[in-house]
């Protein structure tokens, strides 16, 4: 009985050392080339890095190193954000912007996925469309704002068109590149068992492209958000871009920064949700 008690006490005493060793292993993998660290360790590092940046920003602002009219402190930005949430309908403006972004993004994805697959599957489609797409995707979206107003007026169509413009021509080429990477052996096996061209594209190529396609959609959704301000300065009376542009007009820098922070937070949450979806759908990777 006494021996058991002694062993139990020894094992309890050894537990903290084991936990400390385990924690050191988890964090040490972060410094290994292409090492696999635990999600908890990565989250801890992310939070610590963000906290360090915010603390340095606050210290620099309070010490007067940076003029507050150019870069207000995080505490002032947070106060402005609270005021905008409680008194200026910021949540409604955020919902309007999110609706515009998702509408443009879904239209772009619905067009880019089949067109990109066809461009790589049939050379006549690729030869006809690639030069046009390459030409348009290098055009700066702000330069096309006057044309978009002439074509669509100043309604929602113009805003969604500008967001679509900044997304579609990038996404379609990413999809085409993914389609080119589908192993030829898969196509030959599908042909051997009697699959036609449509079945090869939908049942073989699209399934193989799934992991990279989700990643490309996640990346281009981020690009779509970057064009939001441009889209919402076109005779807008709602949206985060409108809020930021109005605050800029009156040199309300804390409100401008608060709007920028909201866009960043929405993007961060969306990105993490899409990463989670990717992990759930493709557990084998």
Defining traits:
285 residues; mainly alpha; MetI-like fold; 12 helices
Task: Please describe what this structure looks like.
The chain is mostly helical and 285 residues long. The chain has two domains: 2-62, no CATH class; 74-281, MetI-like fold, CATH 1.10.3720.10. It is 80% helix and 0% strand. Helix 4 runs parallel beside helix 7 and helix 9 (197-226) packs antiparallel against helix 12 (253-281). The longest helix is centred in the middle third of the chain and has 32 residues, at 90-121.
CATH class of the largest domain: Mainly Alpha
Largest sheet: none
Structural class: mainly alpha
CATH architecture of the largest domain: Orthogonal Bundle
Terminal residue distance: 50 Å
Fourth-tier CATH superfamily name of the largest domain: MetI-like
Count of DSSP H/I helices: 12
Helix content: over 70%
Mean pLDDT: 85
Shape: flat
At the fold tier of CATH, the topology name of the largest domain is: MetI-like fold
Regarding quaternary structure, what we see is single chain
Overall structural domain count = 2
Helix/strand order:
HHHHHHHHHHHH
Annotation, overall tally of beta strands: 0
Rg is 26 Å
Proportion of residues in extended strands: under 5%
User: Which segments are poorly predicted (pLDDT under 50) over 5 or more consecutive residues?
Assistant: none
